[in-house]
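This part of the workshop introduces the protein records we will be handling. An example says more than a description, so a record of this kind follows:
>
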Amino acid sequence: PADHHLGHHRSGRRYVLLVVLLFSFVRNISTSVTHYSIPEEMKEGSVVANLATDLGLDVKTLNERKMRLDIIENKKYLDVNKETGELYIVEKIDREYICPSKSSASCYLRLEVILENPVRIFNLEVEILDMNDNAPKFRRDVIHLDISEATSKGERFSLSNAVDPDVGSNSVKTYHLSGSEDFNIEIQTGREGAKFAELILQKTLDREQQAVHNLILTAVDGGVPTRTGTASIIVRVLDVNDNAPSFDKDRYVVDVMENSPIGSLVIKLNATDLDEGSNSDIVHSYSLYTSERTVSDKDSGDNGVVDLHIPDNMPFKLRESI
């Protein structure tokens, strides 16, 4: 019973000793966080701060206490000079690479400073500030739109937005349109604050006057100085049957010799239609008041062109239709 009591007593002493050691270790872990803010793309070797001074450490003991940085996230972008206690850049930091998500405007590197003999642990938080190092870029360099000439004024068309990896004021802020007075744009704000433009038709289009409109859409960010990106907008105007065919003249007067052989070519008539495609196909026919004995014609093979043959010198009427 005495030995059992002695063993239990020793076990209790070990338990107390373990608790004391654990308490001592926890006590040497700093609960506060030392915060630094640095711009991205700092040159390698650039000094961020004197870590030893900020943490109240003796520079002379950093080597023997094996001071080191433990990277909690990402690769090793920073290190400590154990001779001077300075925190410095090991590799250039690209904010858009380490924090690709734009859901948060903040980007941090979290590190632990560890020393031995005795063990001390300090928490570091390095905020990476965004620089305007990226220009807006459209997903497509050329945007194609087909718009009917029958489309009403005020009609809107969605355009591809530009993307800028930068955040905050360095991201896309506005758009500009150039190349035509027939169109305008209106800036809209989408999810997560993304800006995009809608193309607005200022007046109805006339394909016969201009079949293609070439526009330039420019995206502008809010950085200083600003950066821009451009995309071409090619608007093809689709035809509607809004033009009637017409002859070269409203009236033709033809003189025929009385002894001209039947079937002789008297005149070649030409009708044209400003529309395109099937809307410009022309078929000739005669007025109901024109006698079949008066004229005869032959298709020349060219659209809108007809060869007229008449047996006698007399007036006739010819009408065109499509």
Remarks:
- The domain at 246-321 is CATH 2.60.40.60 (Immunoglobulin-like).
- Confidence is low (pLDDT under 50) at residues 15-27, 311-322.
- The CA atoms of residues 153 and 203 lie 5 Å apart.
- The first strand starts at residue 29 and ends at 39.
